[in-house]
Amino acid sequence: MKKILSLILALTMAVGLAACGSAEAPAEETTEGTEAGEAVTLTVAATATPHAEILAQVVDVLAEQGITLVVDEYNDYVTPNTAVEEGEVDANFFQHTPYMDQFNADKGTHLVSVAKIHYEPMGIYAGMTASLEELPDGATIAVPNDPTNEARALLLLEAQGLIEVDDAAGLNATPNDITSNPKNLQFKELEAPMLPQTVEEVDLSIINSNYALQGGLNPATDALASEDPDSDAAQTYANIIAVKEGNENNEAIQALVKALQSDAVREYINETYSGAVVPMF
What we know:
Elements: H1 2-36, E1 40-47, H2 48-56, H3 59-63, E2 67-74, H4 79-85, E3 91-96, H5 97-107, E4 111-119, E5 123-126, E6 140-144, H6 147-159, E7 164-165, E8 178-180, E9 186-190, E10 204-207, H7 209-214, H8 219-222, E11 225-226, H9 232-236, E12 239-244, H10 251-260, H11 263-273, E13 278-279
Parallel strand pairs: 1-2, 1-3, 6-9, 6-10
Antiparallel strand pairs: 3-12, 4-12, 4-13, 5-10, 5-11, 7-8
């Protein structure tokens, strides 16, 4: 009987020790997971040119701070914003503030600007008509179909003396707000990425510099006319780092902004894009 009781006691102690051992294992794994979690991955949605190219310049700088920068490239103006709103990415880099504000109003999103990085002067490019002076009556002009960039295109045409736009329309101007159109210009509204692909199908195209660059056009030399880099438009249409409201002070986001607003990035922009992209810091 004593031997049986001793055996039962031994077995009970063994099971107890085993149970204690299994309880300690997750604690050790949790500690390792915490240490591994100290490294930060920052994902930024961007259009390819020049945004992703500019972001590539700060990958190593952020890596030295323990931040892995991942750049997700997009070819439209909608998905990068919904991705930030839904938490699929941490930030995006492709748009200016008027576009973001209009997007928030239309889609009910909560995006905010963290910093201005650069400005891309919008340009007018030749298609079937070689110059502004040769523009015929009834010519067709291709313009971006999103509200703020279409208004911007119309204001650029106004600056060339080709049309007049109702001042009250401002950054919401559409062809319906044109008050004077002596050449009876017609407007073809297209998705911004499509504009460089259709230049030969219209008389003139008004294209954002990022898509002009992607389409093999040089805004500094190929544009018949472009926005003045020293104008108010430069401040209004500066391209920004945007995040979801509440994430503005995130340490990794602030590190990204500091890296982008550096002398090295300014030099890269000036040397690479020759005026087609202008630093705003």
